Every structure is written in C-alpha cells, then in structure tokens.
Amino acid sequence: MGTPVITSQTTVMCGHAGSATHVPTNLRVRISSAPVAVASDQHVVAGCALTSVPSTPCTTLTWSVPAVRVKAGGVPVLVQTSVPMGIGPGVVVAGQMRVMAT
Description:
Layout: E1 3-4, E2 12-13, E3 19-23, E4 30-31, E5 34-35, E6 42-46, E7 60-64, E8 71-72, E9 75-76, E10 83-86, E11 88-89, E12 91-92, E13 100-101
C-alpha cells in the first residue's frame, strides 16, 4: 500500500515549529482542489524558533525521498514519508488520505 500524497493543504513544519507554506509549481494536478507537492517545489517557512548562533532560522524547506513511481508533470510527487529539510529535519502532519503513492 502507498503513502498519502502531500498537497498545499498538508501541514508541514520545520523542526523548530515554524509553519511552512507550499509554493506549487504544478497547478494542473490536484487532490480535492489542492495542488500536489512535487520534489522541486519549495515550502517557505515563517515563525522558525531557531535563534542560536551561528545558525539562522529556517526560511525554506527542501525535500528528499519523494515517491518513486508517481509523478506530476514528470517530477516525483512528495508523500507523507518524504523528508523536509531546513536547518535539520522537518515534520509532515497527516493530511489527505484519498490519494496514495509509492
């Protein structure tokens, strides 16, 4: 069985509780009216609590471990087990359960 696909409606945070907003690049593929997130998309972070020196707060998240078999516009989609990285790993909260991918 697959893993839920991440969309613009899925809650994503940096590892320091900063809220991440999805900036979609593929607007054609949607789940329940929300654009799916693909590996090349950015998530812009606001409210990162990291204030220690020399590190700066997280501003964007990059992704690793996208889906292997499912693509949107030729780019692998992100799934709930994909790993968001800012200054350290982030968190993906369970989102839609309608569409799964591997």
